[in-house]
Amino acid sequence: MKLRDLARRTGGTTAWPARWVESPGPGNTSVVPEEGVLEGLTRLGGRLLLRINVNGQHGTASLEWDPPPTVGDVETVLLAGIGAQIRTLGNLELPVRRTP
């Protein structure tokens, strides 16, 4: 499974790319998280808050999905991708855990 395949069962929506937590300021309506670079992240319960830089503008986006994979697995993959473009991170493979 790729990061871009994360989904929410409720509503059948995709979870990737993450969505901004705050609304963009005036004149910044075209700035989307996918155009930015991952600068860091924070785990908040069952979701991740991503710090993203888009052309020098910093913002926070929320990534929330229905497991699997676990929050820890996605966090590990994204931590290894700090400094990469959000667009390319969507192609990263997530670990597959087999249940006994």
List the helices and strands and how they pair.
Layout: E1 7-8, E2 13-14, E3 19-20, E4 37-44, E5 47-54, E6 57-64, H1 71-80, H2 86-89
Description:
The protein is of the alpha+beta class and 100 residues long. The chain has one domain (3-23, 33-89): Beta Barrel (OB fold (Dihydrolipoamide Acetyltransferase, E2P)). The protein is 14% helix and 30% strand. The protein has two helices and six strands; from the N terminus they run ββββββαα. The protein has helices at 71-80, 86-89; strands at residues 7-8, 13-14, 19-20, 37-44, 47-54, 57-64. The strands form two sheets. A four-stranded antiparallel sheet has the order 3-6-5-4, covered by helices on one side. A hairpin with a 2-residue loop joins strand 5 and strand 6. It is globular, with a radius of gyration of 13 Å. The two termini are 19 Å apart. The model has no long low-confidence stretch (mean pLDDT 88).
